[in-house]
From TrEMBL:
Protein name: Nicotinate-nucleotide--dimethylbenzimidazole phosphoribosyltransferase
Active site: E307 (proton acceptor)
CDD domains found in the cross-reference section: DMB-PRT_CobT
Taxonomic classification: Bacteria, Pseudomonadati, Pseudomonadota, Alphaproteobacteria, Rhodobacterales
Catalysed reaction equations from the record: 5,6-dimethylbenzimidazole + nicotinate beta-D-ribonucleotide = alpha-ribazole 5'-phosphate + nicotinate + H(+)
Native organism: Aliiroseovarius salicola
Protein backbone atom coordinates (compact mmCIF):
# COMPACT_ATOMS: atom_id res chain seq x y z
CA UNK A 1 0.00 0.00 0.00
CA UNK A 2 1.58 3.23 -1.16
CA UNK A 3 1.63 6.12 1.28
CA UNK A 4 2.30 4.14 4.46
CA UNK A 5 5.28 5.10 6.57
CA UNK A 6 6.66 4.79 10.11
CA UNK A 7 8.64 6.73 12.66
CA UNK A 8 9.51 4.02 15.21
CA UNK A 9 10.75 0.43 15.05
CA UNK A 10 7.45 -0.77 16.50
CA UNK A 11 5.53 0.93 13.67
CA UNK A 12 7.97 -0.51 11.11
CA UNK A 13 7.38 -4.03 12.44
CA UNK A 14 3.63 -3.50 12.41
CA UNK A 15 3.71 -2.56 8.71
CA UNK A 16 5.72 -5.69 7.98
CA UNK A 17 3.27 -7.81 9.96
CA UNK A 18 0.23 -6.37 8.13
CA UNK A 19 1.61 -6.85 4.61
CA UNK A 20 -0.59 -8.94 2.34
CA UNK A 21 0.61 -12.24 0.95
CA UNK A 22 0.90 -13.23 -2.71
CA UNK A 23 -2.12 -13.19 -5.01
CA UNK A 24 -3.35 -16.78 -4.93
CA UNK A 25 -5.70 -16.33 -7.91
CA UNK A 26 -2.83 -14.98 -10.05
CA UNK A 27 -0.70 -17.89 -8.89
CA UNK A 28 -3.37 -20.40 -9.88
CA UNK A 29 -3.78 -18.69 -13.27
CA UNK A 30 -0.03 -18.79 -13.84
CA UNK A 31 0.13 -22.47 -12.91
CA UNK A 32 -2.72 -23.19 -15.31
CA UNK A 33 -1.03 -21.28 -18.12
CA UNK A 34 2.33 -22.93 -17.40
CA UNK A 35 0.71 -26.32 -17.91
CA UNK A 36 -0.55 -25.31 -21.37
CA UNK A 37 2.68 -23.93 -22.83
CA UNK A 38 4.39 -25.69 -25.74
CA UNK A 39 6.97 -27.70 -23.81
CA UNK A 40 7.07 -31.01 -21.99
CA UNK A 41 5.84 -30.53 -18.39
CA UNK A 42 8.64 -29.16 -16.22
CA UNK A 43 11.07 -28.82 -19.13
CA UNK A 44 11.91 -25.21 -18.26
CA UNK A 45 12.89 -26.32 -14.77
CA UNK A 46 13.42 -23.51 -12.28
CA UNK A 47 12.29 -20.94 -14.88
CA UNK A 48 8.76 -22.26 -14.44
CA UNK A 49 8.81 -21.88 -10.65
CA UNK A 50 10.27 -18.40 -11.01
CA UNK A 51 7.58 -17.26 -13.44
CA UNK A 52 4.81 -18.56 -11.18
CA UNK A 53 6.36 -16.93 -8.10
CA UNK A 54 6.73 -13.66 -10.00
CA UNK A 55 3.13 -13.83 -11.27
CA UNK A 56 1.83 -14.38 -7.75
CA UNK A 57 3.52 -11.20 -6.47
CA UNK A 58 2.68 -9.08 -9.52
CA UNK A 59 -0.90 -10.23 -9.17
CA UNK A 60 -1.07 -11.21 -12.83
CA UNK A 61 -1.20 -14.74 -14.26
CA UNK A 62 0.59 -13.47 -17.36
CA UNK A 63 3.08 -10.97 -15.90
CA UNK A 64 5.55 -8.57 -17.50
CA UNK A 65 8.98 -7.45 -16.32
CA UNK A 66 9.84 -4.13 -17.90
CA UNK A 67 10.76 -1.74 -15.12
CA UNK A 68 13.36 -3.20 -12.74
CA UNK A 69 14.95 -0.92 -10.14
CA UNK A 70 18.43 -1.41 -8.67
CA UNK A 71 19.24 0.61 -5.54
CA UNK A 72 22.75 0.76 -4.08
CA UNK A 73 23.06 1.98 -0.48
CA UNK A 74 26.39 3.04 0.99
CA UNK A 75 27.41 3.33 4.63
CA UNK A 76 30.50 3.67 6.78
CA UNK A 77 31.30 1.46 9.75
CA UNK A 78 33.04 2.39 13.00
CA UNK A 79 34.29 -1.17 13.30
CA UNK A 80 36.70 -0.56 10.39
CA UNK A 81 38.97 1.10 12.99
CA UNK A 82 39.69 -2.43 14.21
CA UNK A 83 41.38 -3.31 10.89
CA UNK A 84 38.78 -5.82 9.66
CA UNK A 85 38.96 -5.00 5.92
CA UNK A 86 41.64 -5.34 3.26
CA UNK A 87 40.67 -1.83 2.05
CA UNK A 88 40.57 1.57 3.76
CA UNK A 89 37.21 3.06 4.78
CA UNK A 90 37.54 5.98 2.33
CA UNK A 91 36.91 3.51 -0.54
CA UNK A 92 33.19 3.60 0.36
CA UNK A 93 32.88 7.27 -0.56
CA UNK A 94 35.20 6.91 -3.55
CA UNK A 95 33.03 4.09 -4.91
CA UNK A 96 29.89 6.21 -4.45
CA UNK A 97 31.44 8.73 -6.85
CA UNK A 98 32.27 5.86 -9.18
CA UNK A 99 28.62 4.69 -9.06
CA UNK A 100 27.47 8.24 -9.78
CA UNK A 101 29.81 8.44 -12.78
CA UNK A 102 28.73 5.06 -14.17
CA UNK A 103 32.08 3.36 -13.67
CA UNK A 104 31.23 0.44 -11.37
CA UNK A 105 30.26 -3.13 -12.23
CA UNK A 106 26.70 -2.50 -11.05
CA UNK A 107 26.33 0.38 -13.50
CA UNK A 108 27.18 -1.94 -16.37
CA UNK A 109 25.05 -4.85 -15.13
CA UNK A 110 22.05 -2.57 -14.54
CA UNK A 111 22.43 -1.20 -18.05
CA UNK A 112 22.89 -4.67 -19.54
CA UNK A 113 19.61 -5.89 -18.01
CA UNK A 114 17.57 -2.72 -18.55
CA UNK A 115 17.33 -1.66 -14.89
CA UNK A 116 17.30 1.91 -13.65
CA UNK A 117 19.88 2.37 -10.93
CA UNK A 118 19.81 4.71 -7.93
CA UNK A 119 22.55 5.36 -5.38
CA UNK A 120 21.96 6.51 -1.80
CA UNK A 121 24.91 7.41 0.41
CA UNK A 122 23.87 7.35 4.09
CA UNK A 123 25.67 9.85 6.34
CA UNK A 124 29.12 8.74 5.17
CA UNK A 125 30.73 11.48 7.25
CA UNK A 126 29.25 9.86 10.40
CA UNK A 127 30.31 6.19 10.57
CA UNK A 128 28.20 3.98 12.82
CA UNK A 129 29.65 3.33 16.28
CA UNK A 130 32.14 0.45 16.68
CA UNK A 131 29.80 -2.38 17.68
CA UNK A 132 32.43 -4.00 19.89
CA UNK A 133 31.85 -1.03 22.24
CA UNK A 134 28.03 -1.06 22.21
CA UNK A 135 25.18 -0.66 19.68
CA UNK A 136 26.22 0.52 16.19
CA UNK A 137 23.13 2.73 15.97
CA UNK A 138 20.55 4.40 18.19
CA UNK A 139 16.87 3.74 17.49
CA UNK A 140 16.62 7.14 15.72
CA UNK A 141 19.59 6.30 13.53
CA UNK A 142 18.34 2.87 12.47
CA UNK A 143 14.83 4.25 11.82
CA UNK A 144 16.34 7.00 9.64
CA UNK A 145 18.31 4.40 7.65
CA UNK A 146 15.26 2.10 7.30
CA UNK A 147 13.27 5.10 6.04
CA UNK A 148 15.93 5.97 3.48
CA UNK A 149 15.52 2.48 2.06
CA UNK A 150 11.74 2.52 2.36
CA UNK A 151 11.47 5.84 0.51
CA UNK A 152 14.00 4.89 -2.16
CA UNK A 153 11.72 2.24 -3.66
CA UNK A 154 9.84 3.31 -6.77
CA UNK A 155 6.31 1.94 -6.24
CA UNK A 156 5.91 1.65 -10.02
CA UNK A 157 8.93 -0.67 -10.36
CA UNK A 158 8.08 -4.28 -11.21
CA UNK A 159 11.25 -5.74 -9.64
CA UNK A 160 13.69 -4.57 -6.98
CA UNK A 161 17.38 -5.35 -6.46
CA UNK A 162 19.09 -3.94 -3.37
CA UNK A 163 22.85 -3.64 -3.29
CA UNK A 164 25.38 -2.14 -0.91
CA UNK A 165 28.78 -0.56 -0.61
CA UNK A 166 30.43 -0.32 2.80
CA UNK A 167 34.01 -1.12 3.71
CA UNK A 168 33.84 -3.35 6.81
CA UNK A 169 30.30 -4.54 6.20
CA UNK A 170 31.12 -8.25 5.92
CA UNK A 171 32.09 -8.01 9.61
CA UNK A 172 28.71 -6.48 10.32
CA UNK A 173 26.93 -9.16 8.27
CA UNK A 174 28.89 -11.92 10.04
CA UNK A 175 27.94 -10.53 13.45
CA UNK A 176 24.27 -10.38 12.43
CA UNK A 177 24.35 -13.96 11.13
CA UNK A 178 26.02 -15.10 14.36
CA UNK A 179 23.38 -13.29 16.41
CA UNK A 180 20.49 -14.76 14.42
CA UNK A 181 21.73 -18.26 13.69
CA UNK A 182 24.15 -19.06 16.53
CA UNK A 183 27.13 -21.33 15.97
CA UNK A 184 30.63 -19.91 16.32
CA UNK A 185 31.93 -16.54 15.13
CA UNK A 186 34.29 -18.48 12.82
CA UNK A 187 31.25 -19.97 11.03
CA UNK A 188 30.27 -16.50 9.79
CA UNK A 189 33.49 -14.47 9.50
CA UNK A 190 35.12 -14.69 6.06
CA UNK A 191 37.69 -12.93 3.95
CA UNK A 192 35.45 -10.16 2.60
CA UNK A 193 37.49 -7.97 0.26
CA UNK A 194 40.46 -10.28 0.89
CA UNK A 195 41.92 -10.20 4.41
CA UNK A 196 44.83 -12.57 5.12
CA UNK A 197 44.85 -15.28 7.81
CA UNK A 198 45.77 -12.81 10.57
CA UNK A 199 43.01 -10.46 9.36
CA UNK A 200 40.48 -13.29 9.43
CA UNK A 201 41.48 -14.25 12.99
CA UNK A 202 41.08 -10.61 14.08
CA UNK A 203 37.72 -10.35 12.32
CA UNK A 204 36.48 -13.50 14.05
CA UNK A 205 37.54 -12.01 17.39
CA UNK A 206 35.74 -8.74 16.56
CA UNK A 207 32.52 -10.65 15.74
CA UNK A 208 32.76 -12.44 19.10
CA UNK A 209 33.29 -9.11 20.88
CA UNK A 210 30.35 -7.61 19.00
CA UNK A 211 27.97 -10.20 20.38
CA UNK A 212 29.34 -9.86 23.88
CA UNK A 213 28.83 -6.09 23.71
CA UNK A 214 25.28 -6.46 22.33
CA UNK A 215 23.61 -9.41 24.06
CA UNK A 216 20.13 -8.14 23.12
CA UNK A 217 20.89 -8.75 19.44
CA UNK A 218 20.82 -12.53 19.86
CA UNK A 219 17.78 -14.00 18.16
CA UNK A 220 16.20 -10.56 17.59
CA UNK A 221 16.32 -9.46 13.94
CA UNK A 222 15.52 -5.77 14.39
CA UNK A 223 17.82 -5.41 17.40
CA UNK A 224 20.60 -7.23 15.49
CA UNK A 225 20.16 -4.75 12.63
CA UNK A 226 20.38 -1.79 15.03
CA UNK A 227 23.24 -3.06 17.19
CA UNK A 228 25.40 -4.88 14.63
CA UNK A 229 24.27 -3.56 11.27
CA UNK A 230 25.25 -0.50 9.35
CA UNK A 231 23.14 2.18 7.74
CA UNK A 232 23.33 0.52 4.30
CA UNK A 233 22.15 -2.80 5.77
CA UNK A 234 19.21 -1.09 7.48
CA UNK A 235 18.40 0.78 4.26
CA UNK A 236 18.36 -2.50 2.31
CA UNK A 237 16.07 -3.99 4.96
CA UNK A 238 13.80 -0.93 4.69
CA UNK A 239 13.65 -1.21 0.90
CA UNK A 240 12.97 -4.96 0.97
CA UNK A 241 10.20 -4.37 3.55
CA UNK A 242 8.67 -1.62 1.41
CA UNK A 243 8.73 -3.95 -1.59
CA UNK A 244 6.92 -6.56 0.54
CA UNK A 245 4.22 -4.04 1.40
CA UNK A 246 3.95 -2.97 -2.27
CA UNK A 247 4.03 -6.61 -3.50
CA UNK A 248 7.11 -5.90 -5.62
CA UNK A 249 9.26 -9.01 -6.13
CA UNK A 250 12.90 -8.72 -4.99
CA UNK A 251 16.12 -10.45 -6.02
CA UNK A 252 18.52 -10.69 -3.09
CA UNK A 253 22.23 -10.15 -3.68
CA UNK A 254 25.19 -11.49 -1.68
CA UNK A 255 26.19 -12.01 1.92
CA UNK A 256 25.52 -8.52 3.25
CA UNK A 257 22.19 -8.07 1.47
CA UNK A 258 21.04 -11.50 2.64
CA UNK A 259 22.12 -10.85 6.24
CA UNK A 260 20.08 -7.62 6.22
CA UNK A 261 17.11 -9.49 4.77
CA UNK A 262 17.49 -12.23 7.39
CA UNK A 263 16.77 -9.62 10.06
CA UNK A 264 13.32 -9.12 8.51
CA UNK A 265 12.69 -12.86 8.29
CA UNK A 266 13.51 -13.23 11.96
CA UNK A 267 11.24 -10.32 12.88
CA UNK A 268 8.30 -11.54 10.81
CA UNK A 269 7.69 -15.02 9.38
CA UNK A 270 7.09 -14.80 5.62
CA UNK A 271 8.71 -11.37 5.33
CA UNK A 272 10.95 -12.67 2.54
CA UNK A 273 8.33 -14.61 0.57
CA UNK A 274 8.54 -11.96 -2.16
CA UNK A 275 12.30 -12.55 -2.58
CA UNK A 276 14.53 -15.00 -4.42
CA UNK A 277 18.28 -15.42 -3.96
CA UNK A 278 20.01 -14.12 -7.09
CA UNK A 279 23.30 -15.85 -6.46
CA UNK A 280 25.52 -17.44 -3.86
CA UNK A 281 28.57 -15.36 -3.05
CA UNK A 282 32.10 -16.69 -2.73
CA UNK A 283 31.98 -15.39 0.86
CA UNK A 284 31.58 -18.81 2.47
CA UNK A 285 28.99 -17.83 5.07
CA UNK A 286 26.53 -16.67 2.41
CA UNK A 287 25.59 -20.26 1.51
CA UNK A 288 24.91 -20.94 5.21
CA UNK A 289 22.65 -17.91 5.57
CA UNK A 290 20.74 -18.93 2.43
CA UNK A 291 20.33 -22.41 3.85
CA UNK A 292 18.99 -20.97 7.11
CA UNK A 293 16.47 -18.95 5.08
CA UNK A 294 15.54 -21.90 2.85
CA UNK A 295 16.58 -20.02 -0.29
CA UNK A 296 18.15 -21.75 -3.29
CA UNK A 297 20.44 -19.36 -5.23
CA UNK A 298 19.79 -18.93 -8.95
CA UNK A 299 23.47 -18.44 -9.83
CA UNK A 300 26.84 -19.52 -8.47
CA UNK A 301 29.41 -17.40 -10.27
CA UNK A 302 32.17 -17.10 -7.68
CA UNK A 303 31.27 -13.41 -7.26
CA UNK A 304 31.92 -11.51 -4.01
CA UNK A 305 31.60 -7.92 -5.11
CA UNK A 306 28.35 -6.78 -3.52
CA UNK A 307 26.80 -3.58 -5.04
CA UNK A 308 23.80 -5.73 -6.07
CA UNK A 309 25.91 -7.24 -8.84
CA UNK A 310 24.95 -10.92 -8.44
CA UNK A 311 21.27 -10.03 -8.15
CA UNK A 312 21.48 -7.75 -11.20
CA UNK A 313 22.91 -10.62 -13.21
CA UNK A 314 19.96 -12.74 -12.12
CA UNK A 315 17.54 -10.15 -13.57
CA UNK A 316 18.45 -11.76 -16.90
CA UNK A 317 17.33 -15.17 -15.64
CA UNK A 318 14.06 -13.77 -14.33
CA UNK A 319 13.44 -11.87 -17.57
CA UNK A 320 13.94 -15.16 -19.43
CA UNK A 321 11.46 -16.89 -17.15
CA UNK A 322 8.81 -14.19 -17.56
CA UNK A 323 9.35 -13.91 -21.33
CA UNK A 324 8.79 -17.65 -21.79
CA UNK A 325 5.82 -17.77 -19.45
CA UNK A 326 3.98 -14.79 -20.89
CA UNK A 327 5.12 -14.98 -24.52
CA UNK A 328 5.09 -18.66 -25.44
CA UNK A 329 2.22 -20.19 -27.36
CA UNK A 330 -0.06 -22.75 -25.75
CA UNK A 331 -0.48 -26.20 -27.32
CA UNK A 332 -3.93 -25.12 -28.54
CA UNK A 333 -2.68 -21.85 -30.06
CA UNK A 334 0.23 -23.50 -31.87
CA UNK A 335 -1.62 -26.61 -32.95
CA UNK A 336 0.98 -28.83 -31.25
CA UNK A 337 -0.19 -32.19 -29.92
CA UNK A 338 0.09 -32.18 -26.15
CA UNK A 339 0.53 -35.93 -25.74
O1 LIG B 1 28.12 -9.45 -1.62
C1 LIG B 1 28.98 -10.17 -1.07
O2 LIG B 1 28.78 -11.35 -0.83
C2 LIG B 1 30.31 -9.53 -0.70
C3 LIG B 1 31.33 -10.33 -0.20
C4 LIG B 1 32.53 -9.72 0.11
C5 LIG B 1 32.69 -8.34 -0.04
N1 LIG B 1 31.68 -7.58 -0.51
C6 LIG B 1 31.86 -6.11 -0.68
O3 LIG B 1 33.07 -5.71 -0.09
C7 LIG B 1 32.87 -4.74 0.93
C8 LIG B 1 32.95 -5.37 2.28
O4 LIG B 1 34.12 -6.13 2.44
P1 LIG B 1 35.00 -5.91 3.75
O5 LIG B 1 36.17 -6.82 3.54
O6 LIG B 1 35.40 -4.46 3.72
O7 LIG B 1 34.14 -6.28 4.89
C9 LIG B 1 31.48 -4.17 0.71
O8 LIG B 1 31.55 -2.98 -0.02
C10 LIG B 1 30.75 -5.27 -0.05
O9 LIG B 1 29.93 -4.72 -1.04
C11 LIG B 1 30.51 -8.16 -0.85
C1 LIG C 1 37.09 -1.39 -5.07
C2 LIG C 1 35.91 -1.94 -4.32
C3 LIG C 1 34.65 -1.98 -4.94
C4 LIG C 1 33.55 -2.49 -4.24
N1 LIG C 1 32.26 -2.65 -4.56
C5 LIG C 1 31.62 -3.18 -3.52
N2 LIG C 1 32.49 -3.38 -2.55
C6 LIG C 1 33.70 -2.98 -2.95
C7 LIG C 1 34.94 -2.96 -2.31
C8 LIG C 1 36.05 -2.45 -3.01
C9 LIG C 1 37.38 -2.45 -2.32
Amino acid sequence: MTGQSFSTLVEFQALLAEAAGPDTAAKAAAEERNGQLTKPPGALGTLEDLAIWFASWQGNGRPSLENPQVIVFAGNHGVTARGVSAFPAEVTEQMVLNFQHGGAAINQLSKAFGAKMDVHALSLDRPTADFTQGPAMSEDEVVAALLTGWNAVDPSADLLVTGEMGIGNTTSAAAIAHALFGGEAADWAGRGTGVDDAGLALKTQVVTEGLLANPGAKGDGIEALRCLGGRELAAMAGAIARARVESIPVILDGFICTAAAACLAQAQAGALDHTVAGHVSAEAAHARVLQELGKEPLLSMGMRLGEGSGAALAIGILKGAVACHSGMATFAEAGVSDG
